[in-house]
Amino acid sequence: MAEAGEPHASEAADGATSERFSSYVSQWRDSIDAALLGGVALGVSDDVRDFYHRPLLEFLARGGKRTRPALVLLGCEVCGGNPTLALGAAAAVEHFQAAALIHDDIADHATTRRGASAVHVREGEGLAITIGDGALVESFLDVLGSRGLLPELQLALVNELAEMMLRTVEGQALDVGWARDARFDLSPEDYLEMATLKTAHYSVATPLVMGALVAGAPAKELEALREAGLALGLAFQIADDLLDLEGSAEVLGKEPLGDIAEGKRTLAVTYALEGLDEELGSELTGILDAEAASPEEILRAASLIREGGGIERARAKAVELADEAARVLEGLDLGEGEAALALRSLPHYVLERTH
After folding, report:
1. 311 within a domain of the structure (yes/no)
2. Distance between CA atoms of 89 and 72, rounded to whole angstroms?
3. Domain-located, residue 3
4. DSSP one-letter code for 194
C-alpha cells in the first residue's frame, strides 16, 4: 500500500501521462495488424478458406485494442531491442487472445463480441471450436516463422508462450469449476489466485517478458518486468470485472452484467459476501447460482454487490496493485524515451478502466 501522503499511481497521472500507452498502441497498430492478418495462410481449397481462414481473419480484423501485442513490442523496446523483430511474438499473443475469446463465448453462451455476433453464432459451435483451436496453432507458427531470430531465442519464446497458455487454462479451470460446483466458500485470496493464473500472465506479464527476451534482456530485468506485469495483469482483470458491473455495451463490446448472468465469482462478489449479512448474502448467491436469472434479478445482484462494499473494495485493490507495479517499474533503469514513458504509464492506463 502507498504510504500516507504518497500519491497513488492513479493520482500521479495527468491527462498526457495517462495517454502515453494508448499512443504507443496506436503507433504500432498497423504493423501489428499486418503481422497478425498476414500470418494466416490462404488455405488449400475454397472450403478450407471459407470454413476456417475467412472467419478467423474476420474476427481478427473486427477489432480488439491490441494492447497485448503492443506490450510485447514495448517490452522489447524498453530493453534496448528492435521492436520490429518482436512482431511475430506480438502476433502470437493476439492469436492466443482470439482463441480464448472464441472459446469463452461458447462456454459462456455469449451472443456478441466486439460489437458483432460471436463466432459460434455466425459459424456454429463446431466450427467455432475448430477456428479457436486453429488460432492456438497460429500462435506457435507466428514465433517459429519469425525472421531474424536465432533458434535458441525462438525456443525460449515458445516456452514462454506455452507456459502462459497453461497458466491461463489452469485459471479458467478454477473459474469454470467453481461455477459448475456452485462454490461460494471462496475468499478474496482464492479469487486473486485464479485471476493471476487466468489473466495476469497472458494480459501483461508474459507479453512484456517475451518482448524483453527478443531484446536480449538480462534475467534481472526479465523478472522485474514479470513481477510488475503480474500485478498489472491482476489489476487489469479486476478493472475488467468492474467495467462489467458499471460499463455500457458500447464500451464493453458486449452486454454489461454478463458476469452476474454467468454466476462468475469476481473479486467484487467475494468482498460483497464478506460485507453483507447472512440474508442478503444468501439472496446474492441465489441469483448468481440461478440457471437463468431475470433482468430484474441481475440488477438486484449488482445492487447487492455495491451495497456489500464489493465495488469500492475491488477498486481499492486495483489501485494497490497498480501502485505496486509502478514501484517495480520505477526501480528499472528505463531511461526517459517514449517507450519508457509509455511503460511507466501502464498503471494509469489500467486504473482508468475502473472508472
Report:
1. yes
2. 7
3. no
4. H
